[in-house]
């Protein structure tokens, strides 16, 4: 198939960044890049304009990279959970596709082209998947996608047990606080397991003899 030269007017995932000149298939240019405003023909006039705008394009490229890296970082904090119908032998009714993932992201305020979600084939089994997402030409983020049986109970964490003064040693530091000598980030402080069953025994409650 004949190739044509185009100038990218914006970043195109898997192809290049704004301002780059690329050789692409004629059909790809006519049916997708040019109508979508993502590229323009690499004519002499357009190439001359490109050189005049090179400095501004480089500024735009760096801004796009910063935004793309921020989005990639955000995706890591957005695990997606899909309750699905499961039949005999664990077989799913239907599957989860890139379009399903894109729709779920859109509902959470993130709009991405489904073609940037790199799911080679629909997800058809229960489990947790690491799904690459190309947020820009040179920046790839990752999504955690979990498929679970919609009828299976969802595990819930047990409520934390509050320790009373009698269960803390003299040198103990309450959770969320730091000692005078050592400052520990709150996120790194873990509760110590409590000894016994937390119940007072008869010996503990016996009144002292008068």
Describe the structure.
The chain has 210 residues and is α+β, with helices and mostly antiparallel strands. Among the domains are: 3-52, Ribosomal protein L9, N-terminal domain (Ribosomal Protein L9, domain 1); 74-149, Roll (Ribosomal Protein L9, domain 2). Helix content is 26%, strand content 19%. It has five helices and six strands, in the order E-E-H-E-H-H-E-H-E-E-H. The strands form two sheets. It has a three-stranded antiparallel beta sheet. A three-stranded mixed beta sheet has the order 4-6-5. A hairpin with a 2-residue loop joins strand 5 (127-136) and strand 6. It is elongated. The model is unreliable at 163-210 (pLDDT under 50).
Query: Treating each run of at least 4 consecutive H or I residues as one helix, how many helices?
Result: 5
**Which sheet architecture does the biggest sheet show?**
3 strands, antiparallel
| Overall pLDDT score | 78
How are the strands of the largest sheet arranged? Answer: 2-1-3
What's the CATH class label of the domain at 74-149?
Alpha Beta
Extract low-pLDDT stretches: 163-210
CATH architecture of the domain at 74-149: Roll
- How many β-strand stretches? 6
Structural class: alpha+beta
**In which range does the helix fraction lie?**
25-40%
Spatial gap, N to C terminus: 104 Å
CATH topology description of the domain at 74-149: Ribosomal Protein L9, domain 2
What overall form do the CA principal axes indicate? Answer: elongated
| Annotated CATH homologous superfamily of the domain at 74-149 | Ribosomal protein L9, C-terminal domain
Secondary-structure element pattern, one letter each: EEHEHHEHEEH
**Percentage of residues in DSSP E strands:** 15-25%
């Amino acid at each position: 198939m004949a190739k044509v030269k185009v100038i990218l007017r914006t970043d195109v995932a898997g192809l290049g960044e704004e301002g780059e000149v690329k050789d692409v298939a004629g059909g790809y240019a006519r049916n997708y890049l040019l109508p979508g405003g993502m590229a323009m023909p690499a004519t002499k006039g357009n190439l001359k304009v490109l050189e005049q705008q090179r400095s501004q394009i480089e500024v735009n490229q760096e801004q796009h990279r910063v935004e793309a890296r921020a989005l990639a970082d955000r995706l890591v904090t957005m695990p997606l959970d899909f309750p699905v119908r499961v039949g005999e032998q664990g077989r799913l009714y239907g599957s989860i596709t890139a379009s399903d993932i894109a729709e779920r992201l859109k509902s959470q305020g993130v709009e991405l082209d489904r073609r940037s979600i790199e799911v080679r084939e629909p997800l058809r089994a229960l489990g947790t998947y690491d799904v690459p997402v190309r947020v820009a030409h040179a920046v790839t983020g990752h999504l955690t996608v979990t498929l679970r049986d919609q009828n299976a109970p969802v595990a819930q964490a047990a409520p934390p047990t509050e320790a009373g003064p009698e269960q803390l040693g003299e040198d103990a530091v309450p959770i969320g606080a730091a000692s005078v000598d050592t400052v520990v980030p709150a996120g790194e402080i873990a509760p110590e397991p409590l000894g016994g069953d937390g119940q007072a025994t008869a010996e503990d409650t016996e009144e002292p003899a008068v």
